Amino acid sequence: MENQLIETSPNKRTIGHLLLEAGKLKPQDADLIVKTQQEQGLRFGDAAVQLGLITEEDIMQVVSRQFDYSCLTVGDDSIDPSVISAFYIYGKEIEALRALRSQLSLRWFTENKSLVITAPTAQQGTSYIAANLAVLFAQLGQNTLLVDADMRTPTQQKMFYTAGRIGLSDVLVKRAGLDAIQVIPKIENLSLLSSGTIPPNPLELLGHARFGNLIGALEERYDIIIIDTPAILESSDAQSMAAVTKGVLLVVNKNEAKIADVELAKQQISVAGAEPVGVVLNNAKR
Fold it and tell me: How many CB atoms are located within 10 Å of the residue 107 CB?
């Protein structure tokens, strides 16, 4: 019988198929890998790594394809490296972020769609947590929207390398519609609404009923909405948005936060009629 390579659907192809398609292996490498695999009782991928033909990172990338899991190759310059959940499948930091996703899924997103993420003061890692959570929810197959609602010092546009200045502020003043939302091309199920043109009056824009109406419209289109906001003790923006979403995740960096600030932030959340869903102790140096 003539030897032939049988084509199957992408998610059923072997690691060998996917490594060949990705250009990580050459057809002539296969015989040597199979020989090593049989002699040492290894899996195909492990044998290829042992021979120095591929790396562990190559294995992770093709495994992500097998399971329809959006993951970029390390070094891909379409997203900032600080969005680690877009690049890595394994690791202590990734597992901690996944555990946070699981807690939020159980404690908040079973009955709600929108969540404000803020910190007591600046430089606590709010944008880092928001970006990585958004990617992780998208990887679960949830239609996810990340909103950069920091119209003072926006960050997400820089993290996802998205072009253009049109965003949230422009939508709120009706200079743009929901077409201002940008799909993140290489992360399936993820979209971004950037902060938009820097306005002179962000609090007034957010305090207007228009913001509540916008969130209502977005909740009809998306399963998960992550809202990255300024520090709650440095402006009233986050408090105003919390009054709409009714849920807040507070991020504190263990090397920066003061207990008194955390308690005051929780009071501000309660005053807004919102629930502090949890406090994340962030230790990332970002």
Answer: 14
User: pLDDT digit string (tens) for 224-248?
Assistant: 999 999 999 999 999 999 999 999 9
Question: d(Cα 249, Cα 126) in Å, to the nearest integer?
Answer: 9
Mean pLDDT of the chain: 85
Q: What are the tokens at 116? A: 């404000």
Give the strand pairing for 114-118 and 247-253.
parallel
Torsion of CA 175, 227, 79, 176, to 10 degrees: -10
Closest to 228 measured CA to CA, from 208, 251, 244: 251
Query: What CA–CA distance (Å, rounded) separates 164 from 182?
Result: 10
35-41 mean pLDDT: 82
- The amino acid occupying position 180 is A
Which CATH number applies to 84-282?
Answer: 3.40.50.300
Q: Where are the alpha helices (DSSP H) in 168-258?
A: 168-172, 202-207, 209-219, 237-245
Tokens of 175: 């200079």
The Cα–Cα gap between 56 and 250 comes to 35
